[in-house]
Design a protein that fits this description.
single chain, 317 residues, alpha/beta, Rossmann fold, 3 domains, binds guanosine-5'-triphosphate, binds magnesium ion
């Protein structure tokens, strides 16, 4: 398969070509990179939603329910499930975590999971690239689900226009994680498992924390849901769509898009510089030599880094 054939397949909305392009991206193949670069130019402006939160709070169940609501409105949906903690792609663990129970036969829904394959930078970049491919394919909505509440989730959420942070009662760590900064990224806060004891308390804690913060323009609403029964899903979707409207009306969408391009650009520059330097230095033994010097006290990291940049770029930058 060549670039033209894959792009034509994607334009013609053939799912096998989209799947193939995503695999190429995951493999880091030059062909995949070329496809993404070309597909970028036929972007169609899908709405990108992010869903994040601690393991087991009900993200996948929520996504499944939201897909149902979006389908009722006639929208098509691409789903990307990102799992920074799992080294497996499509393996049993990830499969269980993210399986969309009822959507496998729906032509308007396309599901794909991405795992680390070793390095986190790659995962964030691959997510951005898969968003480009799904957008070129023409999905109305792209939903990105990430497991966990760490820095890599925050990185991935840069690509979403609206981010839903999901919590569930009884997970004390959740609130801690939020204090550590995840609140910064939530445009809508969802307290799922509202059928369980403690949901009320979690909601109140959130509202108290929100009350301590100042917001300009958009204050994240707190929405209670019971994803397993579908209760509250309409309100959740409504809040997300209101946020999208707000972004457009306030001109913030443009700023967000620009910021996400900036994040991707940084990832690409890293790949073109840092990743290449480290790969070369590792394969030709230079890294080994520099590290040995550091261990023996014969060198220092500053000079080592300069030597690496100079060696492979022929200049210090
Ligand atoms: N009681 C109750 N259980 C729920 C609710 N929503 C989801 N669950 C259950 O919680 C468990 C985890 O749900 P998932 O949707 O897989 O959660 P997740 O956040 O995607 O999990 P990870 O992908 O592993 O992080 C499942 O057994 C769900 O059936 C809810 O509203 N109430
Ligand atoms: Mg999940």
């Amino acid at each position: 398969m060549d670039v033209e054939e894959i792009l034509e397949g994607i334009e013609a909305k053939k799912r096998t070509y989209l799947a193939r392009a995503i695999s190429l991206v995951e493999d880091g193949s030059p062909l995949g990179r070329e496809v993404v670069a070309r597909a970028f130019k036929s972007k169609k402006n899908a709405k990108v939603l992010g869903i994040t939160g601690a393991p087991g709070v009900g993200k996948s169940t929520l996504v499944d329910g939201l897909i149902g609501k979006l389908r009722e409105r006639g929208g098509s949906v691409g789903v990307i499930a990102v799992d920074p903690s799992s080294p497996f792609t499509g393996g049993a663990i990830l499969g269980d975590r993210v399986r969309m129970r009822s959507r496998t036969l729906d032509e308007g829904v396309f599901f794909r999971s991405l795992a680390t394959r070793g390095h986190l930078g790659g995962l964030s970049r691959h997510t951005a690239e898969v968003i480009v491919l799904m957008d070129a394919f023409g999905f109305d909505y792209i939903v990105v689900e990430t497991v966990g509440v760490g820095q890599s989730e925050v990185d991935v959420m840069k690509y979403a226009h609206s981010v839903v942070v999901v919590l569930a009662p009884g997970l004390g760590d959740d609130i801690q994680a939020i204090k550590a900064g995840i609140l910064e990224i939530g445009d809508v806060l969802c307290v799922n498992k509202a059928d369980l004891p403690g949901a009320e308390r979690t909601r109140k804690e959130l509202e108290m924390m929100l009350g301590l913060k100042e917001f300009e323009g958009w204050k994240p609403p707190v929405v209670e849901t019971i994803a397993s029964s579908g209760e509250g899903l309409d309100r959740l979707l409504e809040s997300v769509l209101q946020h999208q409207d707000y972004l457009v009306a306030s001109g913030l969408l443009e700023k967000k898009v620009r910021e996400s391009h900036h994040a991707v650009l940084v990832e690409y520059v890293k790949r073109e510089t840092l990743d290449k330097i480290m790969e070369k230095a590792e394969s030709d033994g230079t890294l080994d030599r520099i590290l040995r010097d550091l261990v023996e006290g014969a060198g220092d990291p500053e000079s080592g880094a300069r030597a690496l940049v100079e060696k492979y770029f022929g200049t210090t930058i």
